[in-house]
UniProtKB/TrEMBL annotation:
One of its GO terms (cellular component) is cytosol. Residues 209-240 are annotated as: Disordered. This is glutathione-disulfide reductase. It is an enzyme of class 1 (oxidoreductase). Residues 209-228 have a biased composition (Basic residues). Its cofactor is FAD. Its EC number is 1.8.1.7.
Length: 613
């Protein structure tokens, strides 16, 4: 897997290269220092991606070079345990096999690392070229050109540096990747080690001599170049050494095939933007005998985000989900000149597999409608408290539930219309329907296919109701915001802020409210004084709390009322039982029908693509 790492480094730039523009001179020095080297615990530096900032330029006493503090990003290669790297046989001779890998250009498998016993024989179909035959339990298996050899990463570690390094060369070190391999016949080979060697200070001459020897043996070295691309995505995690401060982002692989359980890997293009993708040397070691054979590898540039060079797409960005995150991301991308489309399900106040609406959870079934109900519920308390200030009423104030629901829904329609206009005015194409990912650049919306250079997943979440007997009689927060009539007596399961907001709403609208929580107090994780005070004040208002009780079943009687059985007993006579027990992402029910079949598919492909509304 490839990572994009942001590094802050103090760098001395010799005066002889300051004839170049400053950024170019610094890039030359950075490539000398980092390119083709392994940074301990980060991986192999594939290329210097871009320079984010340059500060300083001081010449300190006794030094003849200017010192700068540089923030830049580099592309690192470090596979994760369990990752599959696929290879195809390119050629073979009496010395062994030559394999072509997804992002490694060449790698040699010497005779001693072939599955034993194996023997070479001339292949009449290939003009006498050598073909290796593996004798497996008395049966011959030909290792031919159609065979796929897969390397599965077993471990990645950074052994102690074998020679003393200069202080300025740290934290460079070797990286050892232990792998096992198998052919498409599912026959497992021995454990191997791929060791990416850092040409750290003191080892450069040895590395050059090794390459010269390999060239005489016919090993080929290749390289690729790429053009400058935009700056990197937002960083995700951090790593610090005495010399470096880095932030790292995990990137998905370009050739991730959703029809295969063992996808090939290759370098995403938007990462090779600024730099040369130079060749690096690796060792292929027998895990047991530690014999070495040198080959060459090259990271190949593709295009931005792994897209194929020259391919035409319908859109630069296709967003699945038009909630708060999806609308904002689409609008901003369009304002910066990208061609953008966003798909969303038809409008409904209650979300489902077939309904949604532009605006998402907050606008349609979260913040906005809930606050409207909060405002409606507070008047009953104000009417009651107004008597102490001299107010009197000839008749008791009455509340009409249907009027509240109608006006609430009218406001939601108004707001979703505003969001649609925002997208339209920004030049974003709005497509109504359910989006499904076909491959990394294709989306199916209700049978119509769209292609995009980038796909953004912004599908939000929905309420979660635990599986207990009778859970089909329960409602969630979506339904609670759109009830046809006011609850007369409602049980609310949950002790978080959503449960308490609804308890306050229905209490203010004169419903009998019971709250069931598993803890002794509400709002776990909040300040203790806040928890105590809120519980007391809500109890004073008439809300009844049932603490340390877990729901076990819901039953419905002949008259339509509901009974809630808990770990402490059963309470009857509820018109509604509501669960406010958390939310779950919509990914499984809304999209990703292909990725769900791939082991680790969502986690591999979606690291950078999810937007949480």
């Amino acid at each position: 897997m490839f990572y994009l790492s942001r590094i802050e480094h103090t760098l001395r730039v010799p005066p002889d290269i300051l004839r170049l523009p400053l950024a170019e001179a610094i890039k030359v020095e950075l490539e000398k220092l980092f390119l083709d080297k392994v940074v301990s615990n980060l991986g192999l530096c594939v290329s210097v991606y871009d320079i984010r900032s340059i500060e300083g330029g001081f010449i300190f006493p006794s030094e003849g070079a200017a010192t700068y503090t540089v923030v830049f990003t580099v592309i690192m290669f470090r596979p994760f345990v369990g990752e599959i790297i696929g290879a195809k046989l390119k050629e073979s001779d009496a010395n062994g096999l030559r394999l072509s890998l997804g992002f490694f250009d060449d790698i040699y498998v010497p005779v001693n690392l072939l599955p034993q016993p194996s023997r070479p024989e001339p292949d009449p179909r290939k003009r006498g070229r050598v073909t290796w035959i593996w004798d497996y339990n008395g049966e011959d298996f030909i290792i031919d050109w159609q065979d796929e050899i897969r390397f599965q990463v077993r471990s990645v570690n950074y052994p102690p540096v074998p020679i003393e390094q200069l202080n300025e060369s740290k934290p460079f070190a070797p990286m050892v990747i232990t792998v096992s391999s198998s052919m498409n016949r599912h026959l497992i080979w021995d454990h191997w080690i791929l060791m990416v060697q850092a040409p750290f200070h003191g080892g450069l001459m040895q590395n050059k001599l090794s390459r010269k020897k390999e060239k005489k043996k016919g090993f080929r070295k290749t390289s690729s170049r790429a053009q400058k691309k935009p700056s990197s995505p937002e960083m995700a995690s951090s790593f610090t050494t005495p010399k470096l401060t880095t932030s790292t982002t995990l990137l998905f692989s370009k050739n991730l095939s959703f029809s295969l359980s063992s996808p090939f890997l290759s370098l995403p293009v938007n990462l090779t933007s600024l730099a040369r993708a130079r060749s690096r040397s690796i060792f292929l070691n027998d895990h047991h005998h530690h014999r070495q054979r040198r080959g060459f590898i090259t990271a190949s540039a593709e295009s931005e985000n792994g897209a194929e060079i020259g391919r035409k797409y319908d859109f630069d960005l296709f967003t699945i989900g038009a909630g708060s995150g999806g609308v904002r991301a689409s609008r901003f991308a369009a304002n910066f000149g990208a061609s953008v489309a966003v798909c969303e399900l038809p409008f409904a106040t209650i979300s489902s597999d077939t309904t949604g609406g532009v605006g998402g959870t907050c606008v349609l079934r979260g913040c906005v409608p809930k606050k409207l109900l909060v405002y409606a519920s507070k008047y009953s308390h104000e009417f009651e408290e107004s008597h102490g200030f001299g107010w009197s009423y000839d008749n008791e104030p009455k509340h009409d539930w249907s009027t509240l629901m109608a006006n609430k829904n009218a406001e939601l329609h108004r707001l979703t219309g505003i969001y649609k206009n925002v997208l339209k005015n920004s030049g974003v194409t709005l497509i109504e329907g359910r989006g499904k990912i076909v491959d990394p650049h294709t989306v199916d919306v209700d049978g119509k296919i769209y292609s995009a250079k980038n796909i953004l997943i912004s599908v939000g979440g929905r309420p979660f109701i635990p599986e207990i007997p009778g859970s089909e009689y329960a409602i969630d927060s979506d339904a609670a915001l759109d009830l046809p009539s006011k609850p007369e007596k409602i049980a609310i399961v949950g002790g978080g802020y959503i449960a308490l907001e609804f308890a306050g709403i229905f209490n203010g609208l004169n419903s009998e409210v019971h709250v069931f929580i598993r803890q002794k107090k509400v709002l776990r994780g909040f300040d203790e004084e806040v928890r105590d005070f809120l519980g007391e004040q809500m109890s004073v208002r008439g809300i009844e709390f049932h603490t340390e009780e877990s729901p076990q079943a819901i039953t419905k009687s002949a008259d339509g009322t509901l009974s809630l059985k808990t770990s402490k007993g059963t309470i009857e006579g509820f018109s509604h039982v509501m669960f406010a027990t958390g939310r779950r992402p919509n990914t499984k029910v809304c999209i990703l029908f292909n990725l769900l079949e791939v082991p680790g598919g969502i986690s591999r492909f979606m690291k950078l693509l999810f937007v949480k509304a």
